Structures are given as C-alpha cells and as structure tokens.
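Weekend entry, working from home. Most of the wet-lab plans are on hold until the incubator is repaired, so I used the time to fold the two sequences that have been sitting in the queue since the last round of cloning. Logging both here for the record. First:
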Amino acid sequence: MWPTEPAKTLISIFEAAGRYAIDKTEYVGGLTIQFWRGLRAIWKVNPITGSRLRWQNTVRTMAVVGFDALPVVCLIAGATGLIMAFQGGAELRRFGALKFVINLVGVSMTRELGPLMTAIVVIGRSGSSFSAEIGTMVVTEEVDALRTMALDPIEFLLTPKYLAMMIMMPCLTVAAVASGILAGAIFIYFTLDMSLGVYLRATFDALHMRDIVSSMIKAIAFGTIIVQVGCYEGFNVSGGPEGVGRSTTSAVVKAIFLVVLADLLFTAFFYFFWQ
C-alpha cells in the first residue's frame, strides 16, 4: 500500500529534521576543523621566526578591529551603563537602596554586558568584513591562486585575523566595562552627590576576581567565534557576488546567535560551579 497523506507528511517532517541536523553538525564540524588548523598555525605569525608579511597583516588588522572600533564600543557601553543605572535606580529607590545601583552597574557590566556588547559591535564591524573580504577572494579565485602557490589560505588569511582578535577583544572589553561603570558614576553623582573616587572604591569593593576572569574568558571565546564564523562563511561562498552578500549576512546572524549561546553556557557554568 502507498503511504497515506498523514504518513507522507510525517515522513517529510522527519526527513527535514534529519537533513537540518546533518547540515548543522557538518557546520560545527567544519568550524572545529578550521579552528584547530588556525590554532596550529598561529605560531608562524610573529616578527622573529614567522612571516613578516603575516605579522604586518596582523598589526593592520589589530588597528582595524581594535583602535577603530574603540569609540563605538565605548559609546554603546557607556549608554548601556547609564540606562542600567536609570532603570535600576527607578526600582531600588522604592526600597531606599539607591546605593546598590553601584553594585548593579559594576557587576553587570563586568560579568555580562561589557563582553556581550563588545562582541555584538565587533561582529557588525569586523565579522562581516572578514566574511566579505574572504568571500570576494573566493569569487575572484584569489584563494585558489594561494593554493596554487602552495600557501595555506587558513594560515595566510585566517591566522593573522585570529591573533589580532585575541589581542584586541580583551582590550575592547576592558574599555567597554570602564565606559559603562563611568557612565553609572554620572547617575550616582546627580542622585547621591557621590564623588568619583568614592564611587570607584565602592565599585571595586563590589567586584571579585572571578568577575574579571570570567569577563576575559568570555572576551576570548567571543573573539574566537567571531573570527571563525566570519572566515568560514567567506571560505564557503558560492554563487558569485550575490553569494558574498548572503555569506556576510549569514556570518553576522550566526555569530550573534553563537555568541549569545556561548554567553548563556558560560553564565550557567559560572553560576553553578564558580561562586
């Protein structure tokens, strides 16, 4: 007997679910392989024993990823810290605990919002550009030319970007956290008439070393995700110029999703196992 219509629908659902699971597993596997290949080649990017050209490329990428993004990161983080101070102050004022806004802003910016806001800004600025740059090279067959010259595209294109991101993401995160905390000082000054020195001492008292360490761990993990996803989408471009646009959009969407997912996993781990 031929399958009935409900049976056909059920089979098609299972088939689509299986195909989706296979595609996502293949994607994660490709990212993992690319990550290990880039990690193994990172020692070649140094000015002493490595290629001077790759080191110069790394320094240029550091300037683009870090220095050029610094004003935007500080502005967004500062606005976020000030918004959090206003929202927290509106609720804590009811209980006469307005001074705890200091703890709220300091801990939240250090643990969560500093690394996360920095990652989102860097995804929009650098993750998309990585995908577009490598995707354009794939479309114009420049990547094939590198392979013809016995140059590994991972080592030549990805590794300098990865090293630059590993250096600059923690620096940008520190700048974002500092901007958010200093923005909270504006609210505290006009509501409690507290000086900046007293505010900073209270913030340092509220923070612990685990907060700072977890922030740096997240910054490194988020930077890794941004570089790997952006470059992977670029290396797998197909379909000409339209494919470059699709890969850039896909890189931004997937990087944001993976960064938020990683932030959730890290936060749950630190909550249950590191208090």
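Second, folded right after the first finished:
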Amino acid sequence: MASINLEELTVAELDRLKNSIDSAIVNRRQSELMNVRRQVDEIVNASGFSLQEILEAKPARKPVEPKYQNPDNPDETWTGRGRRPRWVESCIKSGKTLEELAI
C-alpha cells in the first residue's frame, strides 16, 4: 500500500482524499454485502427450507426442573426463576424458608 504523507497535502487535497475513501468504503461494503447474500442464498437453496422458516427458527428450550414445591399442594411447584408464586410468598410470610420448600 502506498504511503501518503498527510502533512504535505492541502485542505482541498485532503478533502478529495476523504471523499475518495468514503466512496471506496461504500462500494466495498456493497460488494461484500452482495457476496454474503450470494452465500446465504446458496445455503438456503441447499437446505430445503425457506428463508422465512430459517429466520423464524428458534432453538428448543429444555424444560427447567422445579426446585420448590408447595407443602400444602404438591401439584404447585416453582423452578426458582422469575417472580415468586403467591404460595411461595405465603409460605415465607408464615415463617418458612426457601430451603424448607426445596424438593
């Protein structure tokens, strides 16, 4: 790459250089974007799925095992994530600890 001594350039020359660089960036960006688009199109076409199906795909979430259980109603459980259920709040207000509710 050629070395340019910016100290020797006039303001007008620096401005032309800046405009040339900005134009080169826009052109290179578009070229690289189109290259990526071609690669994506090839992958999509080879996959047998539509682009919409691929974009909407989400990984399956594993169910989280419950960590706590209501002693008064074993059907009520809580994983420990998110807001505490009312039954957990009620148990804690009555003097129990989360450790006592652990499964």
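Plan for Monday: verify the second prediction. Residues 12 and 18 are 10 Å apart (CA to CA).
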